[in-house]
Design goal:
By secondary structure, the chain is mostly beta strands. The protein is about 5% helix and about 25% strand. It contains 1 helix and 4 strands. It has one helix at about 25-30; strands spanning about 5-10, 15-25, 35, 55. It has a 4-stranded mixed beta sheet, with no helix packed on it. The radius of gyration is 12 Å and the shape is globular. The two termini are about 15 Å apart. GO terms for molecular function: hydrolase activity. InterPro entries: Sortase, Sortase_dom-sf.
């Protein structure tokens, strides 16, 4: 975790998107980034974990996951 509160990033190459992930899903976070849902595993790169993240699409003020519908089976993302 960094001093900024960012715990990880989600990168989706096909839609040229890299978004910061913060712990929690309050409105302030979801307006500008992706939130990690409390009570799920932290996205720390271990096998067998189940981290759950949440983010908006279609906001006027931020792109975030707006283009996620362009993904198809086999496309990859990294955390």
């Amino acid at each position: 975790m960094t001093g900024t509160g960012i715990i990880a990033y989600v990168k989706i190459p096909k839609i040229n998107t890299t978004l910061p992930i913060y712990h929690g899903t309050d409105d302030a976070i979801l307006q500008v980034a992706v939130g990690h849902i409390p009570g799920t595993s932290l996205p720390v790169g271990s096998k067998g974990i189940h981290a759950v993240i949440s983010g908006h699409r279609g906001l006027l003020s931020a792109k975030l996951f707006t283009d996620i519908d362009r993904l198809v089976d086999g496309d990859t993302f990294m955390i």
